[in-house]
Every structure is written in structure tokens, then in C-alpha cells.
Specification:
Number of strands of chain A: 6
CATH class of the largest domain in chain A: Alpha Beta
Strand order of the largest sheet of chain A: 4-3-5-6
Order of helices and strands of chain A: HHHEEHEHEHEHEH
Radius of gyration of chain A: 21 Å
Largest interface: A-B, 47 and 47 residues
Helix content of chain A: 40-55%
Oligomer: homotetramer
Strand content of chain A: 5-15%
Distance between the termini of chain A: 63 Å
CATH topology of the largest domain in chain A: Dna Topoisomerase Vi A Subunit, Chain: A, domain 2
Chain lengths: 215, 215, 215, 215
């Protein structure tokens, strides 16, 4: 296969990119100046060495180039100004950016996905074992952990989709037994009318949730 | 103007219908059998005489053909099994159907619209005067009113849109002074993730609401 | 069933209208003034008496209210300034308006639909028998027909869709034998790039047609 | 700026990619295995050395790795089985793939874009000078050129868009004077109904073109 087709196939694996757009990417790169192409290739190649996956929340972050390369924790997990008593569990890295914009000041844990409806082994789809270990560690040993603040609440921040709901239910089943023993609260994001939605087109579940969370 | 163009223009006033679809409606009617056309015309013509606007909630309902034509109240307002202590304020008739599907069992009041952002006189756009009169009547005179149950809560069920929010604010300003004196609670529908929405694409306000209504 | 639901069901039969929009139509009519409703009902009821289907091209047209009610032909078919030598065959009335805007000055014949791919009897789906009769009449007896101009060309103006192509093929099979004997030409609309389309996204057939009709 | 943001910005320059999708690309790459990332980077970096721009038609093509690196012409331009008498002028490389699927067997010339409506100097937006030089060379010196076949037709294969039409007009103005002297024909792709389009929704220009190219 020729290099144009090979690069096209590599781009086809990008999320949301089909054969036609993959080919447009290659055409775009062919016409672009070499400087841009080299810069892009270099950044892709160095991505692994310039980034780290946080050992606590599992999100990816840029390493501090001045540090000795030993970044184990991301800026949020290592910040002393965040409320370490509240842990917000999200599906993926991009969710954290959305939650940050809402003003949340606690910590995060990235599941790395959701659990498909038909999945037999949830721990193959999300970081379930890592999550349970973290909850035990954070909740039971406030002084042995990274912080002197003990975990008081775990918020399940799954999407309001079928698979998100399914994942939330499995997480609740797994976490509830621990939560009682370790005395932290387990909560889920409130449902209701999201900004821009009209009552006429809202589904019964959303209206029922909006009614029960009326204020 | 010829009758085909005249009927096209009448259909163009239907909500969401442009000139092209209006013309398709006329073509459809031309080809349909006379029986259907006559039935449609008859139902449109008799709509006023066969329906009533409820004197309490202002929604439109089908008159009971067996009654003496004196229907003043719709089936919900005249039902004895509804909780007359809770009043759900909606923008339009269609909202009631959505709320009914959620299992709500109180009463309704139809505003008849929302208040545009630049409007000077809110009462020209919604049934503000009628609403305030109803609240005073229901809340102050439980025995003088249609029911022995006094009003305990008014829920503002506006859409989560800019104009819906604006209308809600004006209603709050108008109702709060009365609410205190008449001792009913004034609440609004909870905001949050509506069914189907993903955290990554949720706006900061929706996430903040979902966080504060977490449960 | 109550009159609101009945009218909703009648509107659901309109082309492209689902249950939700049908209900919005009824809500719209309930709030509209009686004058508009009565006018609409009257126009729908009188549609049959105020319009005629042209006896030659089969399109619907508004009757001239001054005439004695004996309009048998539409304005195009009865015009003396049209070229009666060219007959443009269309699927439906609305196509005529589009073709008129292109400046065509011949006559029309409305098939009343297309022939489904699996149909056994084409004449049950389109006015095939009426069309063949008209072609024989127009082509063979220029002096016995309505005009002294003999038919010289028949243009098949089907849509460039699968069902349109299928209908065109069947019409060609039926008309070709007659065309030879009666000496008129049978043609089809040219294919090519339609306004707004880009070469990159054009299908091979369209490009091949555009190439063969290059000028 | 950190490497994640830097790579996001580089992806934002890809055609049709906004900040959100650019970030998803980076997230995708972070989670992908290093092997894929390195392969992608390597292919992007080597794109220039593994591809050539054809010296005759200006499209990009993969170099033959076995050749001495002296590929000056693409496979189409160097083929002896193509009809060198017909030159198809296209806007961009991707157009060639579409035209090839239609069975065209002549040669191509890639303009490299279209001329914006307000542009003063057309030659800054497309390869106008290169095109005119090629036409003179191909048409005047059949034996001095790369082929013994003299140019007999030039097809303007612009898109049927406003800017495509504008570019076609300017090319016609520039080529017509040469064409007469050099005795090749200048043609444009035929307009008409493109596959899938319906007569009812076709614009007057398209119908007029379909009528004049009827067959």
C-alpha cells in the first residue's frame, strides 16, 4: 500500500473520522508546509514522554518540563486548595473540563469508560478495582493517605444515558457496602431540565426528576 | 386570488408550516376523497362549539356532549382525586400532557405564553392578573373556594430557556410578596442532566445545578 | 373520542405531519379567532366545487367563477400561446410549478405518481392508459384533436430517483412502439451536476452524464 | 503552553475540525498504544519524502520506492493507455478520484482551488499561469511535447457552485483566445438533475439545463 493510503487508514481510526475525511486530512497535510507537518509529527511522537497519566485520578496531563520527570500526580490531585473530602467520578478526561467550568472544587477519578449493558465483567471496561482501592484508602486512612482530609462524599457523575445509568447502578452495588463501613456518602448528579430544554419535549423521567428536585 | 392560493395562504399560518408545505397540504386535499375533506372542515368549524376553555386553568378541553353545555371546568380541575394543594404553572396546554405523563397529581394553570425579554407590560403576554387572582382566592379562602383544600405550593414550570427564565423571574417578583402573606411555598423545577445528555457536553450551569441537586 | 383528538387524527394524515405537530395544529386553531377557523373550514369544504381537474393534463386548477362552471381545461392546456408540439410528462402537480419557472413553454401531462419497483400492474399507480390515449390522439390526428399542431416530442420528466428511473423505463417500453408509428421523438431530462453540487461528492453516474452532456 | 494544548491547536488546523474534536483526537492518541502513535508520526513526517507532486497535472502521488526517486509524473500522466487528447481540469486532487470512478480515460490538471468572487489576481488562487503554459505546449507542439497526440478538447470540471461558476467564467475568458489559435475545443460539464434529486425541488437553472441536454 502506498504512503498516502497508509496515512489515510491511520486517520480513519480517529474518533468520528470516516474514509472521506481521513483522505481530506492527508490532502491537507500534502499541501501544508513541511514545518507544520514536522511539528505535528514531533508532538504526536513525544506525546507519551511529555505526558503522564495521574496515579490517583488516572487522567492524562502534561508533565512539568522543569521537574525531574517524576510527576506522579496531576495538578488537581496535587493541589492543596481542593476539597479532598469530595470525589467526583467521571467517565473520561474530557468530562473533567466540563465539571471544572461549573466551579466544582473537589477531586476526580476517571473510570476510563462505561460498562456495556451486556458486559459480564465490569472491571474489564472501567477502572473498577482501582476505584474501590482508592475509596478504601481515602476513606479509611486519612493520615496514612496523601491528605489528612478523610473522604466524606463520592459523587457518581455518569452521563444520563442508558449505558451511563447501567454503569451507575453497578457502581452503586459495588460501592454501597464499602460506603457504609467507611462512612462516606454516595450520591448521584441530579436530573432535571437541562439548560435550553422545553417542558413540552421533556420525557416523563426528566419531569419527574425536575419535580422531585424542585427548589 | 384563486381558491387554491387562498387555502395555501391559510395553511401558511399554521405553526412551522412554510409556503411549500402549505401547498403540499392543498395538493393532498385536492386528491383526497370528499368525505375526508368534509369531515376535516366540519371538525375545524365545530371546534369552538365542541370545546371550552377551562375557567380555572385556562386550558382547552372537549365539552361533554351529554352535559347541558355548561362545562366551565376541565376534567382535571373538576376531579376530586387531584391534590388541590399544589398548583403547577405551565406555559401552554401541550406542557400539561408532558407533566401528566410524569405522574404529577396536582392542579395546573396555563400562562398562555412567556414574557419576551424586552416586554414592558408582562400582563399583555401572559395571564398574570388571572394567576394572581387565582392564587389569592385559592390560598386565602379554602372554604370559600371550589375546594376545602388550601394552596400549599406553587410550582413554576417554565422551560429552561432564556425567555422561560425571564418569565420565571418576573413571576417570582410578583408572587413572592403574596406567598408570604398567604403562606404557600413558591418553587421552581429542578435543573440537572436531562435524560440522554452527556456530562462532556453539558453547560456549566446545568452541571452546577446537577451538583447542587445531587442525591 | 373527543373532538380535539378527532381533529388531531385528521391532521395526522397530512403529508409529513406526525402526532405531535398534528396536536400543535389543533392547539393553534383553538387559540385562533373564530373568523380564521371558519374561513379555513369553508375553503376546505368548497375545494371540490371551486376546483377542477383538467381533462387533458390532469392537474388541479381553480375554476373561473365567472364562467358557467364548464371549465374542462386548465389555463395552460387552453392557452393558444403554448407550444402544443412538446409534451412534458411529470409525476405530480407541484412539478409543473418548478418546470414553469424554468421557462418551458410546451404542454404537460400529470402521471399522478410513480410506479413502485415491485408493482405488477403499472396502470394502477400512474395514468398510463390515459397517457397512451393522449399520445395517440395528439400525434395521429392533428386536425381532429384540440389543436392543429401535431405532437413532435414527448419529454419524460421523472425525478432522478430509483423509482423515477423505474417509471421512466416502463414508460419508454410502452411509448417507444407508438412513437415510431406516430413519428414523435421520445426524450428524457439530461442528467448532470445540479446547481450547488460539488464534483468531489458527485456519484459516478452523475459525472458520466455530465461528461456526455458537456457543452 | 503544555504539549496537550499544543497538539490540540495543531489538530484545530485540520479541515473541518474545531477545538472540541481536536481535543478528542489528543485524548484518543493519549489512550492509544505507543506503536500506533509512532507509526502515525512517522507517516506524517515522511509524507514529503514519500510523495511527489506531479510535474504535469500537479496532483500528489506516492513515489515508487523501487525507482531512483526521480518520479516526475504521476501514474495517470505517465500512462500510455490514456487519451492524451482530452484534458479534464479539476479544482483539487480529490475530484480526480470521483472522475476516475465515472470511467473517464483522458488526462487531468489540478487547479489547486477556485477563484474567490472578489479576487483581483486570479493567478494567486489557482495555477492559471501553469495551466495556460500547459495548454500552449500540449496543443501547439504535438511532436515537441511529451506525447505525439495533440490536444483536442479541454473540459472545465468546476463544481456547480457560485465560486465554481466564477472560476469557470474567468478560465473561459483566458482560454478562449488561445483555444481558437491552437484549435482545441473548450467545454464544460453538463448541468442537469443529479442522481437522487427530485423535479419538484430542482431550481429553474437546473431544470432549464436538464431540458436543453435532454436526450
Amino acid at each position: 500500500m502506498n504512503p498516502i493510503d497508509q496515512l489515510t487508514q491511520l486517520f480513519e481510526r480517529f474518533p468520528g473520522i470516516g474514509p472521506r475525511q481521513a483522505r481530506r486530512f492527508v490532502q491537507f497535510l500534502l499541501v501544508e508546509r513541511a514545518g507544520y507537518r514536522n511539528e505535528l509529527a514531533e508532538h504526536i511522537r513525544l506525546l507519551a514522554s511529555q505526558t503522564s497519566q495521574c496515579g490517583r485520578c488516572y487522567r492524562w496531563f502534561a508533565k512539568d518540563s522543569r521537574s525531574a520527570g517524576a510527576d506522579k500526580k496531576c495538578s488537581i490531585c496535587s493541589s492543596t486548595s481542593r476539597d479532598a473530602g469530595i470525589l467526583f467520578i467521571v467517565e473520561k478526561d474530557a468530562d473533567i473540563e466540563s465539571v471544572e467550568r461549573s466551579g466544582f472544587k473537589g477531586l476526580y477519578f476517571v473510570l476510563g469508560g462505561t460498562i456495556p449493558l451486556a458486559a459480564d465483567e465490569p472491571e474489564k471496561h472501567i477502572r473498577l478495582i482501582e476505584l474501590l482501592a482508592r475509596l478504601e484508602s481515602d476513606a479509611s486512612s486519612p493520615y496514612g493517605g496523601r491528605t489528612s482530609v478523610s473522604l466524606t462524599e463520592v459523587i457518581l457523575g455518569l452521563s444520563a444515558t442508558t449505558e451511563g445509568d447501567h454503569t451507575r447502578q453497578i457502581l452503586q452495588e459495588k460501592i454501597f457496602p464499602i460506603a457504609a463501613g467507611l462512612s462516606f456518602k454516595l450520591s448521584s448528579l441530579g436530573r432535571g431540565l437541562s439548560t435550553g430544554s422545553e417542558l413540552e419535549y421533556a420525557d416523563p423521567d426528566t419531569i419527574a426528576s425536575a419535580l422531585s428536585s424542585r427548589n
